[in-house]
Q: What sequence folds into this?
């Protein structure tokens, strides 16, 4: 318990126990901690209460998915170990519960991706700006996993570790500031590459470019290490998806697809 | 860190079984335990739970009784094949045991283990019973199997004597493991897991698993949810819809079996049994267990078996687990566990337990200074607020009878121990208590402990110099007096102390404190305007004695302010003895200024119509003017102001004794005042003489005429103006200014004169030109008056004519009196030719008329007497 800190846990399982790493003490500091305690407990114990929507982080190993989520939920950057299987956080966003799934980028867990993405409302495709291959992998390996996501799923493309590049001044850890300095490695992936990828994704999904959010709005560059643009990313995505839930609720369609409830009805129709 | 969630106890040692026994499968239903062996024998045993008190020599396992199990063998049966028994499933409601051996399911009687004549099912790879069948028929079970020959799954309904195939569905590949829930099957194919709706045939891919994995595991865990062995030793959760709702648990790579005992997932590998919580996916416990081959849960009981021994995993009492978690500060886990256990514990018991856990958790959070969390926990667990207050030294009133609950909710003696004397932390804790108490004091949380809450709050406020201290004391509160008083004294909150006394109806004590502050004997700068506060306090105090007691003190401090205790009192008190004006006036004679203010109050504000006060006030005014005038260098402005007051009073009041005042101002230069006084005596000649000749103040003289004739008739007014005119004219020959004044007077007030008599007064030599405004005005006035009277006469005449006409109308027709006419009042005929006729035409007896006139029952039509006719 030496590493635990004072906040209480969301259900998360992550990391390899042999390192003594236990992220049992995560919790959002979103300003409503009091009610959060009970809120979370209730969710954990009664499986009745389902999150209103699901957001999934995909991307190659080591690009910083876990670090991004950790930065957003706990407001800090901490050493991570490569994720095993997956982990999830619950985030209260206004009246909605959003479950955020952190997936494992390692090849051996690739097969789980489709299940994680099933019925997702938003997918954040993450790459490492200092590693071109990680961007290519998104298209080759991860895009296919999103076939199980909702039809109106929102996509965001995120280049993480911007702090490593010569584009970013590490001295000013203030969010939103990006003066130039040198002595950094060359940025391998430009934002334009990500925008191009985003457009290809829309084509792949056969979505009308005029209907979906603009590529410029859905491509982010972040640093989990400094916190640069991390809130911008998550909040931007939340604000984009929430209207979808509202719309769905209004049209009387439950967000979480429940085959068990819908199928028997169909079969009944068939019998008659 | 781990929890002890389970204890592993042996149910049957290897000695109990024949040598060389090799258990292949087992089934447990209630007390019945069935074992299937590799040499085709089925054993039926009774599994008996025993409660033993723990021998003290053993590990200090606290006070809970120690459960153990024994087995006694009932029956055994050799099925006669040389094949191992692969699966056993009991259908206890049907008293049947389903046995899979040599790819064939046979049905035995669960008591006798005799085979039944019912048909066997052949070609079975493996089978399961649907945990949650849709049919809901209590006299059948739903059997789901994987066919060993065809690439299908089959669903059977099995009753006591019959077996019926309901459905057969092809699978994409040969399946090897099956679990069922409702209409769904969860299957392990050769390299992936799927769910299959056997009604529609719809397949849902879950995820692939490496085909080199030893053995796929598919475990039903709850409605529509399964637990599956995934890649790299992951225990994955998946719903029938192919969604995962819980993060995976991490097992070792070679898990043999998994079981559920809410809220834990247990897994067996070659060396260990591991326990993970489904609530947070953490590994909670590891139990070494070698050579295990089976781990299964049966109706909540987890059994693990090696090839020749059976063991039971007994969950430790939840409360113990929770207490362990709490004592290692793992609040969230403890709460999750408690909440998760809700359905397994009777409601009342749960609520008591859960409340206590919440409270303990609250104190843990509190000790970590996580106040928001602590507050929420305290609030939701309805913590007796005194438990919290009692942590703070000296905060509970000394009279409080509170004793902390036992066993204690936390380990801390007090705040100092909790913070290890860190003053910074102590202050944070105090601030927390302050806000918390102020939030709850008006809610039901404080019910019954109002005194403890308010007293503690008062102490905190006083200590922190918090402004809400005063708000607390002036609003409804239950602060304990003596304890609070000494605390306030200690912290030099003397003003607040006064408020406390006042709230508790000890006004004398309150005043005593405040007076000391004002006199500088005590120091408290809470209210810079404390003196005025005290004056107001006395003003509104109903306690006569107190007011009189402090009256001298107050007036000596300031007459101006102090007199408010009399002038601002509520009016009804004047009629009471204690504060009747006479008493106050005679009391105030020592305080000149205050007396003046008080009389002003009586005369000018209260409008008391008493000669005594008016005269007294006027005399005081005169004396004040004289006093001011007598000063070395009199302040002209002030003198004028004072004289203005005096004159106003003299003019407006009719009650004072005029002669007395004339005497009083005799020989002074208060001419204007004297003129007013003469005016009051109707000695207008003298008055105007003073104004015109002594003061030469023509404006004042004109004003004099105006206000003295106010409300009087025209002749009186004309008389006054004419007096003034004559007065001017007397001196007009000497002094031109009088002449001008006379002309102006006439021209400005033509209507105030009787023009005819004025003209006679005027000197011959005045030109018409000079007086033309007056003449024109006077003419207009006369003509107007004339026309007005003509109109009045005309109107009166017209009215007279109207009445005359009415009278004639009434006399016009004769009135015939016959036997058929009845009196309108008494309804009797007329006896004599005498009657009274009303203007409406009704006729009545004369005596009835007088009566009815008195009763006025029909008198409504009588014309009203009119003075104008
Ligand atoms: N400099 C820098 N390092 C980062 C940043 N984000 C993550 N890292 C580092 O990158 C490594 C991988 O980060 P993770 O968050 O574990 O990556 P991941 O995407 O979750 O990887 P998998 O769980 O294996 O899929 C860690 O050593 C992090 O410290 C960043 O913004 N800047
Ligand atoms: Mg990770």
A:
């Amino acid at each position: 318990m030496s590493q635990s800190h004072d906040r209480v846990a969301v259900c998360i399982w992550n990391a390899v126990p042999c390192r003594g790493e236990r992220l049992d003490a995560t919790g959002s500091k979103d300003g409503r901690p009091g009610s959060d305690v009970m809120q979370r407990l209730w969710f954990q114990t009664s499986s009745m209460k389902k999150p209103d929507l699901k957001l999934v982080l995909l991307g190659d190993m080591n690009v910083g998915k876990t670090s991004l989520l950790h930065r957003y939920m706990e407001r800090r950057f901490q050493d991570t170990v490569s994720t095993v299987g997956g982990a999830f956080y619950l985030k209260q966003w206004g009246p909605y519960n959003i479950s955020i799934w952190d997936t494992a980028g390692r090849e051996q867990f690739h097969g789980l991706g489709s299940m994680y993405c099933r019925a997702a409302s938003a997918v954040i495709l993450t790459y490492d700006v200092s590693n071109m291959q990680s961007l290519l992998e998104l298209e080759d390996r991860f895009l296919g996993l999103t076939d199980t996501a909702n039809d109106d799923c929102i996509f965001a493309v995120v280049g993480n570790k911007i702090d490593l590049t010569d584009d970013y001044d590490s001295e000013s850890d203030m969010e939103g500031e990006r003066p130039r300095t040198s002595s950094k490695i060359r940025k391998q992936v430009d934002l334009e590459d990500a925008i191009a990828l985003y457009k290809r994704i829309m084509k792949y999904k056969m979505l009308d470019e005029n209907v979906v959010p603009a590529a410029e709005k859905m491509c982010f560059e972040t640093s989990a290490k400094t916190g640069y643009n991390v809130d911008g990313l998550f909040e931007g995505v939340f604000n984009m998806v929430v209207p979808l839930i509202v719309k769905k609720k209004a049209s009387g369609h439950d967000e979480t697809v429940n085959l068990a409830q819908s199928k028997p009805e169909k079969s009944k129709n068939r019998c008659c | 860190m781990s929890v002890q969630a389970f204890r592993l106890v042996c149910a049957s040692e290897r000695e109990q079984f024949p040598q060389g026994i090799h258990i292949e499968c087992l089934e447990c239903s209630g007390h019945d335990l069935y074992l299937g062996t590799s040499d085709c024998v089925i054993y039926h045993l009774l599994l008996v739970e025993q409660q033993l008190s723990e021998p003290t020599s053993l590990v200090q396992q606290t006070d809970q009784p120690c459960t153990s199990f024994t087995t006694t063998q009932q029956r055994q049966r050799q099925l006669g094949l040389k094949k191992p028994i692969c699966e056993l499933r009991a259908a206890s409601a049907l008293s049947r045991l389903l046995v899979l051996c040599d790819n064939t399911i046979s049905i035995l009687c669960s008591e006798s283990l005799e085979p039944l004549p019912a048909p066997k099912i052949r070609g079975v790879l493996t089978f399961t019973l649907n945990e949650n069948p849709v049919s809901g028929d209590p006299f059948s079970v739903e059997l789901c199997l994987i066919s060993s020959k065809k690439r299908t799954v089959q669903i059977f309904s099995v009753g006591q004597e019959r077996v019926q195939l309901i459905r057969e569905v092809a699978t994409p590949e040969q399946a090897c493991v099956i679990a069922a829930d409702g209409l769904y099957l969860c299957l392990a194919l050769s390299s992936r897991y799927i769910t299959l709706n056997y009604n529609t045939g719809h397949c849902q891919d879950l995820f692939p698993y490496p085909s080199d994995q030893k053995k796929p595991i598919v475990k039903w865990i709850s409605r529509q949810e399964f637990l599956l062995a995934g890649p790299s030793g992951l225990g994955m959760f998946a719903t029938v819809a192919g969604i995962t709702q819980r993060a995976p648990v991490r097992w070792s790579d070679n898990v043999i079996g998994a079981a559920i005992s809410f809220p834990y997932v247990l897994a067996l590998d070659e060396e260990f049994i591991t326990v993970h919580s489904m609530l947070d996916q953490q590994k909670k416990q590891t139990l070494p267990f070698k050579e295990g081959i089976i781990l299964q849960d049966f109706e909540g009981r987890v059994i693990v078996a090696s090839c020749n021994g059976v063991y039971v995993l007994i969950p430790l009492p939840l409360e113990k687990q929770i207490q362990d978690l709490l004592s290692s500060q793992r609040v969230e886990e403890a709460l999750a566990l408690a909440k998760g256990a809700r359905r397994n514990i009777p409601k009342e018991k749960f609520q008591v337990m859960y409340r206590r856990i919440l409270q303990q958790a609250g104190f843990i959070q509190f000790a970590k200074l996580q106040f928001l969390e602590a507050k929420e926990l305290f609030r939701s667990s309805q913590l007796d607020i005194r438990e919290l207050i009692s942590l703070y030294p000296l905060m509970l009133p000394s009279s409080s009878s509170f004793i902390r609950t036992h066993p204690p909710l936390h380990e801390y003696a007090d705040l100092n121990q909790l913070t290890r004397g860190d003053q910074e932390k102590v202050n944070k804790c105090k601030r927390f208590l302050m806000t918390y108490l102020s939030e709850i004091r008006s809610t039901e949380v404080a019910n019954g402990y109002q005194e403890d809450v308010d007293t503690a709050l008062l102490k905190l406020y006083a200590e922190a110099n918090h402004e809400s201290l005063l708000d607390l004391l002036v609003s409804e509160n239950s602060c304990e007096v003596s304890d609070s008083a000494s605390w306030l004294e200690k912290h030099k909150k003397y003003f607040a102390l006064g408020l406390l006394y006042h709230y508790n109806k000890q006004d004398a004590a309150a005043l005593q404190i405040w007076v000391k502050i004002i006199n500088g004997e005590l120091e408290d700068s809470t209210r810079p305007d404390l003196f005025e506060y005290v004056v107001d306090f006395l003003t509104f105090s109903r306690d006569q004695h107190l007011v009189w007691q402090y009256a001298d003190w107050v007036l000596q401090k300031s007459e101006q302010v102090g007199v408010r205790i009399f002038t601002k009192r509520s009016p009804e008190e004047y009629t009471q003895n204690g504060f009747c004006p006479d008493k106050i006036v005679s009391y105030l004679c020592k305080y000149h200024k205050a007396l003046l203010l008080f009389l002003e109050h009586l005369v000018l504000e209260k409008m008391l119509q008493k000669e005594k006060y008016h005269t007294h006030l006027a005399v005081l005014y005169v004396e004040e003017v004289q006093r001011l005038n007598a000063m070395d260098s009199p302040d002209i402005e002030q003198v004028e102001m004072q004289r203005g007051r005096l004159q106003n009073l003299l003019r407006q009041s009719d009650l004072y004794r005029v002669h007395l005042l004339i005497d009083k101002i005799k020989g002074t230069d208060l001419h204007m005042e004297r003129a007013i006084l003469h005016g009051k005596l109707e000695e207008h000649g003298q008055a105007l003489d003073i104004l015109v000749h002594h003061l030469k103040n023509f404006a004042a003289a004109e004003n004099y005429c105006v206000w003295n004739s106010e409300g009087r008739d025209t002749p009186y007014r004309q008389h006054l103006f004419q007096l003034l005119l004559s007065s001017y004219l007397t001196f007009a020959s000497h002094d031109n200014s009088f002449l001008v004044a006379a002309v102006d007077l006439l021209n400005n007030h033509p209507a105030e004169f009787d023009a005819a008599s004025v003209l006679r007064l005027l000197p011959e030599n005045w030109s018409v030109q000079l007086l033309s405004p007056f003449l024109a005005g006077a003419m207009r006035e006369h003509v107007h008056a004339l026309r007005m009277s003509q109109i009045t006469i005309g109107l009166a005449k017209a009215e007279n004519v109207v009445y005359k006409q009415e009278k004639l109308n009434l006399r016009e027709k004769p009135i015939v009196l016959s036997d058929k006419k009845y009196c309108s009042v008494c309804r009797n005929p007329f006896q004599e030719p005498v009657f009274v006729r009303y203007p409406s035409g009704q006729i009545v007896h004369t005596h009835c008329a007088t009566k009815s006139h008195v009763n006025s029952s029909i008198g409504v039509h009588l014309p009203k007497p009119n003075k104008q006719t």
